[in-house]
User: What shape does this take?
Amino acid sequence: MAVTLTKPLHKTHINIDDDTRVKLIDQLNNALAALIDLKLQVKQAHWNVKGMRFIALHELFDLLASEVDKHIDKIAERATTLGGVALGTIDSVKSTSVLPPYPIDALTGEDHLYALIDRYALASNLMRKHIEDADNLGDAVTTDLYTETSSALDLRLWFLEAHIQDKV
Assistant: This one.
């Protein structure tokens, strides 16, 4: 069950009304949970990949995790900027993330690639939904943040998909 706020917890001089800020903060925490989950799942792949393309994928997965981490920080800080609390605990991530659990039996590079492709697509699609929602709420700054995040996720999705396109 997702954790939602009933009101912003902190005062701010940002000229967005309280009801809108609550909606934006809830949305940001939804995005935050998905991104934290994504980062941990990418690290799972990084630590456990085996096979012929080991070093290339091991290094790629580490790069992907560090890039996601930058977006995590920006999303969390936007939630607090709007007067909310960034919900990044393991309990809030587990109850809120839209990503399926990572397959712990994934072993080969191909196993990890397919798992991460699915998860990157879900995370990027969630950001695109939030772009529309934040835009409808009139918050261009949050909209831009989601656009930046979605763009980065789409780029890395392409990198992941390029590894398996000879299989399709």
User: Anything to note?
Assistant: The helical segments are 18-48, 54-81, 90-96, 109-136, 140-162. The longest helix spans residues 18-48. The chain has one domain: 18-162.
